[in-house]
Design brief:
The structure holds 2 protein chains of 2 kinds. By secondary structure, chain A is mainly alpha-helical. Chain A has 5 helices and no strands. The model of chain B has no long low-confidence stretch (mean pLDDT about 95). The chains are: A mainly alpha, B alpha/beta.
Chain lengths: ~200, ~110
């Protein structure tokens, strides 16, 4: 990429030089030799913009867009992982029974989700590491905390009550309601993170 | 502060921690607290050291287990004292965060 840029610069200058040579030695077109300084500046700035935009500015915009897309994708994957817990839990409610292996599966799903949430928190913090605007730093910290706290609250609700009691073999309505409510909070926190990323 | 005691939960207790109380089933938080955590914690405090808790190779940690063990310890001894004398090790940082969250805000049940 760097080689191509250098090559393009050399070609532009060579073409410029060649044009000047032909104009001087083969005057097919008569040029006004009185050159004003602002005209020189105009030509140079036009050339600079023509080179800078495709090579530098476009690349910077593209890099930033890809970073946002990667982070949004990570948010969606994390939410998908946590949804698996909800699906399993509500499946047991629909089946009117929950076995020891169902409970084990819920714990495994939480372990998997733990890793996703942790990665998301770390990547979120890393992505906005260089950001210095106070408002954005504050929103970023609130967003990460919201995801963390809502997820831990969800874990406490699902696994903190009677679920792990060996005599608990059917999910009651109260636990189902609490689970739905806390899942919504996690979902909201992650979706708000996506909105935040879009607005940066 | 040096680590003077350690507990590898998967090897010394169970790879499937259970509920909060002993009457609720096997490998409860209460059993873990009484048989392992509390004795080692008290010893570490006497020695002026820490207990290293190894959390890996376990299926998962239900909140009831954490509450019945670490949470109860925090209620009895105080969150600051518990955090001062415990150290956690895990490839899963969220596990550590959850336990610390419970120690800092133990659920009284």
């Amino acid at each position: 990429m760097k080689t191509i840029r250098i090559l393009v610069l050399i070609i532009v200058f060579a073409l410029g030089g060649l044009s000047g040579f032909f104009v001087k030695n083969f005057p097919f077109i008569r040029w006004n030799t009185e050159v004003k300084i602002y005209e020189v500046f105009q030509v140079c700035s036009t050339l600079f913009i023509g080179i800078a935009i495709p090579f530098f500015i476009k690349k910077w915009i593209e890099d930033k867009r890809q970073l946002k897309n990667a982070l949004i994708e990570e948010c969606k994957e994390t939410l998908t992982e946590i949804k698996r817990i909800r699906t399993k839990f509500e499946g047991c409610y629909s089946n009117n029974s929950i076995s020891a292996s169902d409970k084990d599966e819920i714990l495994i799903l939480f372990s998997d989700a733990d890793l996703k949430v942790q990665n998301l928190k770390e990547n979120f913090t890393l992505a906005f590491k260089g950001e210095s605007k106070i408002g954005i730093v504050g929103i970023k910290e609130n967003t990460v905390n919201a995801i963390n706290n809502s997820y831990i609250s969800y874990w406490k609700t699902v696994t903190g009550g009677s679920l792990m009691n060996s005599n608990y073999t059917r999910i009651d309505n109260d636990l189902l309601k609490s689970q739905k409510s806390d899942f919504s909070s996690v979902e909201k926190a992650i979706k708000q993170a996506i909105i935040f990323i879009h607005t940066i | 502060m040096k680590v003077t005691q350690s507990i590898d939960i998967a090897k010394e207790f169970s790879s499937k921690p259970g509920a909060r109380y002993k009457y609720e089933g096997d490998f409860s938080g209460q059993l873990f607290l009484e048989s392992l955590l509390l004795p080692k914690f008290d010893k570490a405090v006497q020695e002026g050291g820490k207990v290293l808790i190894i959390l890996d190779d376990v299926l998962g940690y239900p909140s009831s287990f954490i509450s019945g063990s670490f949470g109860k310890l925090s209620i009895d001894k105080g969150a600051d004292q518990v955090l001062k004398h415990l150290e956690f090790e895990s490839k899963n940082q969220m596990r550590i965060d959850k336990i610390i969250s419970e120690i800092q805000n133990p659920k009284k049940k």
